[in-house]
Amino acid sequence: MTSAPHSDPAPRRRIAVVGAGPSGLYAAAALAASGRPVDVDVIDRLPAPYGLVRYGVAPDHVKMKSVIRVLAKPFDPATVRFLGNVRVGEGGVPLEALRTCYSAIVHATGTSVDRSLGVPGEDLEGSIGSGAFVSWYSGHPDFTKLDPPLDHPGMAVVGAGNVALDVARVLAKSADEMADTDIPDPVLDALRASKIRDIHIVIRRGPQHVKFTPAELRQIGELANADVVVHDDGLLAAGVPEPEERRQQQNLAMLTEWAARESKDRPRCIHLHFLRSPVRLVGTDGRVSALVVERNVVDGDRVRGTGEEEVLDVGLVVRAIGYAAEPVPGLPFDAATGTVPNAAGRVLDGDTPVPGAYVTGWIKRGPTGVIGTNKSCAHETVAAVLEDLDSLPVPEADVEAVLAQHGAEPVDWTSWLRLDAEEVRRGGLRGTQRVKVAELDEMLAAARAADSALSRG
Ligand SMILES: Cc1cc2nc3c(=O)[nH]c(=O)nc-3n(C[C@H](O)[C@H](O)[C@H](O)COP(=O)(O)OP(=O)(O)OC[C@H]3O[C@@H](n4cnc5c(N)ncnc54)[C@H](O)[C@@H]3O)c2cc1C
Ligand SMILES: NC(=O)c1ccc[n+]([C@@H]2O[C@H](COP(=O)([O-])OP(=O)(O)OC[C@H]3O[C@@H](n4cnc5c(N)ncnc54)[C@H](OP(=O)(O)O)[C@@H]3O)[C@@H](O)[C@H]2O)c1
Question: Which residues hold FAD (predicted)?
Answer without folding.
Answer: 23, 52, 88, 362, 369-371
